[in-house]
Automatic annotation (TrEMBL):
Thioredoxin domain residues: 247-389
InterPro entries: AhpC/TSA, DUF4369, Thioredoxin-like_sf, Thioredoxin_CS, Thioredoxin_domain, Thioredoxin_ResA/DsbE_sf
Coiled-coil segments: none
GO cellular component: cell envelope
GO BP: cytochrome complex assembly
Main location: other
The protein, known as: AhpC/TSA family protein
GO molecular function, one term: oxidoreductase activity
Record has ATP-binding as a keyword: no
Subcellular location: Cell envelope
Length: 389
């Protein structure tokens, strides 16, 4: 597991309110959902899947004669969901509720127009703000312009590109975040407030604060599977935060054990005892930033392995075949192991990891001497050069 604040609302935010009222009047008393998704002509898909907030498939459909993907069913409560096609790397989030809902994907950049549903209209109202739409398009354009054909080994140029992209991105996130805060603060249905609370990314919205709000909304709503699920997630996140504090710089490492692609068992403690320094790297084949760090690790390994550096990559892949393919594609030469259970594996929980890549530099005495951002990109070599001469 990437704040937002916002100015006073202007007239541009009247439209979502009107849409919400229209949706309420049209969908009042609806006992099932009728979801229609359309893709542009240049995006070909054999099928689309409807996923719930856990990422589980609710169902899949092929396109009808008109090229539309139609899902019909019933849901016990309004809750986050998404339509997906893995091959196309397509995922469109929305709120699934018993209503007539249309999802129109407009282009390959996945610009999307979603209509229908009371909670959807309230929670995602920021997408109708002209400033948000304009800046979001600009963010995508600037990102493409800045990073296409960029030499990622040129640190000054990479930092400048990020600065330019982040300047626009911060404005986008600010509009979104402050809109969601207003949804929570205003007189809206409790379920809209609950979902908005889980979508806010702000340091002010701590796990404790979110849990307190969810508890209040659950009492107003009654039974809610989504709120119960998210409460469980937040409590697990609090545990992870506490565990992460036990593996900071200066702490002792915690052992990790897993099997290589050939079934050989490797323990981190064995590598730590044999080498001056060991990098522990948690990653997965599906993690783009993780794969992006592999060239940096390769350079570091080539430069420092002969001086006492070892690396242990720990994959959180649930699909063994995907992990093996990634190893073949990346052609890494240091020890790689896979562990079961992904983020729920007790060894991962011990490190309090909520996102990957997660990296730790451990000395031969078993002390963590550097971690995470100090072991990324250009900082990796700078950090290693301080310890390995």
């Amino acid at each position: 597991m990437k704040n937002y604040r916002m100015k006073k609302f202007t007239r541009s935010f009247i439209l979502p309110g009107v849409i919400a009222l229209f949706a309420i009047s049209c969908n009042k008393g609806k006992s099932e959902y009728h979801l229609t998704a359309t893709l542009p002509a240049n995006i070909k898909a054999d099928s689309l899947y409807l996923l719930d907030y856990k990422g589980d498939k609710i169902g899949g459909v092929a396109a009808d004669k008109e090229g539309k993907f139609v899902f019909v069913g019933k849901t016990t409560e309004a809750a986050p969901a998404g339509i997906s096609n893995e091959k196309l790397h397509l995922y469109i989030p929305f709120i699934l509720e018993n209503a007539d809902i249309s999802i129109d994907v407009k282009d390959t950049d996945m610009n999307t127009d979603i209509k229908g549903g009371e909670i959807q209209s309230i929670v995602y109202g920021y997408e109708k703000d002209p400033n948000y739409e304009k800046l979001n398009l600009e963010r995508r354009k600037v990102s493409k312009e800045q990073f296409t054909n960029l030499d990622m080994t040129d640190e000054p140029k990479v930092e400048e590109a990020r600065k330019i992209v982040n300047k626009v991105g911060d404005q986008v996130y600010k509009i979104k975040n402050d809109y969601l805060k207003k949804v929570v603060a205003d007189d809206n249905p409790p379920m809209a407030k609950a979902i908005a609370s889980t979508m806010i990314s702000d340091r002010d919205y701590t796990a404790e604060k979110i849990l307190a709000r969810l508890d209040k909304y659950k009492k107003e709503i009654g039974k809610s599977d989504y709120i119960t699920y998210y409460e469980k997630m937040m409590n697990e996140f609090k545990t992870m935060e506490d565990n992460a504090k036990t593996v900071t710089v200066g702490s002792d490492f915690k052992d990790v054990m897993g099997k290589t692609r050939n079934g050989e068992e490797i323990k981190l403690s064995d590598l730590v005892a044999k080498n001056k320094y060991t990098i522990l790297e948690f990653w997965a084949s599906w993690c783009g930033p993780c794969r992006g760090e592999i060239p940096n690790l390769k350079k570091a390994y080539a430069k420092y392995h002969g001086k006492g550096l070892e690396i242990l990559s720990v994959s959180l892949d649930s699909k063994n075949a995907a992990w093996i393919k990634a190893l073949d594609d990346e052609k890494t030469v240091w020890p790689n192991i896979n562990i079961e259970g992904e983020f729920q594996n007790p060894q991962v929980v011990n490190y309090g990891i909520t996102g990957i890549p997660a990296s730790y530099l451990i000395d031969q005495n078993g002390k963590i001497v550097a971690s995470n951002y100090d072991l990324r990109e250009f900082d990796l070599d700078r950090t290693l050069s301080k310890f390995i001469k």
